[in-house]
Amino acid sequence: xxxxxxxxxxxxxxxxxxxxxxxxxxxxxxxxxxxxxxxxxxxxxxxxxxxxxxxxxxxxxxxxxxxxxxxxxxxxxxxxxxxxxxxxxxxxxxxxxxxxxxxxxxxxxxxxxxxxxxxxxxxxxxxxxxxxxxxxxxxxxxxxxxxxxxxxxxxxxxxxxxxxxxxxxxxxxxxxxxxxxxxxxxxxxxxxxxxxxxxxxxxxxxxxxxxxxxxxxxxxxxxxxxxxxxxxxxxxxxxxxxxxxxxxxxxxxxxxxxxxxxxxxxxxxxxxxxxxxxxxxxxxxxxxxxxxxxxxxxxxxxxxxxxxxxxxxxxxxxxxxxxxxxxxxxxxxxxxxxxxxxxxxxxxxxxxxxxxxxxxxxxxxxxxxxxxxxxxxxxxxxxxxxxxxxxxxxxxxxxxxxxxxxxxxxxxxxxxxxxxxxxxxxxxxxxxxxxxxxxxxxxxxxxxxxxxxxxxxxxxxxxxxxxxxxxxxxxxxxxxxxxxxxxxxxxxxxxxxxxxxxxxxxxxxxxxxxxxxxxxxxxxxxxxxxxxxxxxxxxxxxxxxxxxxxxxxxxxxxxxxxxxxxxxxxxxxxxxxxxxxxxxxxxxxxxxxxxxxxxxxxxxxxxxxxxxxxxxxxxxxxxxxxxxxxxxxxxxxxxxxxxxxxxxxxxxxxxxxxxxxxxxxxxxxxxxxxxxxxxxxxxxxxxxxxxxxxxxxxxxxxxxxxxxxxxxxxxxxxxxxxxxxxxxxxxxxxxxxxxxxxxxxxxxxxxxxxxxxxxxxxxxxxxxxxxxxxxxxxxxxxxxxxxxxxxxxxxxxxxxxxxxxxxxxxxxxxx
Length: 815
Ligand code: ADP
Ligand code: ASP
Ligand code: MG
Fold this sequence. Notes:
This protein folds into four domains: 2-226, 3-Layer(aba) Sandwich (Carbamate kinase); 306-457, 2-Layer Sandwich (VC0802-like), CATH 3.30.2130; 463-611, 3-Layer(aba) Sandwich (Rossmann fold); 615-796, Dihydrodipicolinate Reductase, domain 2 (2-Layer Sandwich), CATH 3.30.360.10. The protein has an eight-stranded mixed sheet with strand order 3-4-2-1-7-9-10-8, with helices on both faces. It has a seven-stranded mixed sheet with strand order 20-19-18-17-21-22-23, sandwiched between helices. Helix content is 43%, strand content 21%. β21, α18 (558-569) and β22 form a beta-alpha-beta unit. By secondary structure, the chain is of the alpha/beta class. The protein has 29 helices and 29 strands.
């Protein structure tokens, strides 16, 4: 025989009740069944609301009518008109009784726990009566059972303790007297010795099922709900949560104790004692296997089984010298709390015994505080204890699984994920069983934390990177194109999902909680965008508080740079092709690095030098592996390379410059390239990365332009001046040609000095043979002394720069 328990959503609509009846029909073909039912979803909460309103002397008719209507609607939908009346009548009787009780509460404006339980009991009684009547249309032998009198408890109303022996006896007797019947039993409700209604705690219908299962030695206790079993995390928080095929009783207990609402924790005990498997299944997807909670679970490869969380928790901290070495102190504290029925969710004590922190339900926090103040009055007065403080707005996150016991590094992985996402941990507890590690954190970080931890532990799933992109110019556009094209591959091979959550250019911005599809981002921007406001963009990005965030700066403007530090300090990584940040004040350059280190995020700027070429990375690897850079020689202006490589024969200088700009090889303002400024910035960044505390003015630049060109006030004027000075450039060209030499603009770092000079080199020089917009850089180091390490390739252009930005983003994702 199996027990089938259907939760609130499974009796919540005409469609779900029909599904429920089909499931019962199928199950009965194989096994005898007993059906345990919850109240219709939302009804218990409405009953509670009514009770509280009545207690305050407020009108409670609206929720009462809502409950009536919920039931009547189902009856009208699922019963033929001829069969409706008796059901309406009986339900009306229930609602009248309920109204009488509520009126009594309203009259005296007092609501005892006992009366509250009585009021709540109507949820299960109404649903069970209603569903059993509907079931009569399909099955001949249905009997509705008000199960309250069959489960005996103490008088702890609201969360009564079950007398298992007596209840099992009553249930088995009842069952024996009803053989051949299809029983529909109320969940959640029970009664005390005096026959008064008690309840088993919120979510307690699961427990009812387990008690019946234990009494009748059921083959299975099936919990039918609205999700595919127990998932790795609460699916309302983690979209990627997936169903766990198997769990041990302890794992299920720990997960549900720390908030996995799908099953009520006490349910596990009777099942565990009798080794009856509990199966959690989905009423809306009956074919899915669901989750088995049972004795001999197979070994699983997963490092942890699940992550659960309690949204609202308060902590109290008790500290002071009076606690040190005092045996029995914590005994006194916790027996006090237990005597007063305050449930302590978790406890941590510092090894110096100087302080104890414990977490309780927020509703109990003030009560706990008052009790402690009374109990330890003497110690507090003598200042041996500090006055305890309550902290609210906190949550608990717990990772659970038996494998934790055998796997080192689990907590490191947990704290790494939290740390990288800027989640501040307030307290930590590890159960001695090593089945769980729980941390207390700020409530506002909970969703981010659970998602980040989920990504960290379930590597086989795609890790999600949430990116916010600034700039929709050549590079921005190209990046979106590459991202869109590459996403399926990334998902397949890199286990990475990149979601664009925000886009801004200088005019418009759009941030979306759902993410922005890249196939028509421009359209989305036109439809939904608000006026661009960088400050607001950053604020909104931070407020979304998403895990694994990357801010991508594809602009060449100083504005975003002003926010870098704040962004890094908000635990958001930065990928930037914008050189301005790293080439302004040295102090600022250091501040970015420091912030990234401190907040364990990444600050990647590979494309600051040589577009997508691995220059910054190579230098970093050399330095980190202990090599010493003696000299760096480089051509780092792809623009100037392009210009010199194409400035030959009949061609004029200004037309070649124009062409370079049209091909996207120049900075938005070509003067930044030709006045050597862009090159200077790159050399400065390299010098700084090579360990030199250097400023812009420490770099000497030989100008390749005559003074009139340098003095131009606008781009148009600049082109005009280039044309005016055509003879100057022609002269350079012919001189070089006459000597079989080529013009090269070369940067050099040696002995802590950086200079950029215009040189004419012949074919013996390694930089002679350079084509197109290529960059070249040679590192002479302790290890690469005789033959330098050379990196060469296309070092400008939107396509290669975007590819470099893309690679940096992926590198953030790999962490
Ligand atoms: P029922 O009304 O069927 O008893 P509950 O609302 O009590 O259902 O529990 C089911 C809900 O529990 C799911 O809809 C889901 O939102 C929530 N839940 C929280 N954590 C988990 C988890 N780890 N696995 C599955 N569901 C979870
Ligand atoms: N109806 C009760 C509640 O909402 C019991 C249950 O659904 O399990 O808490
Ligand atoms: Mg439930």
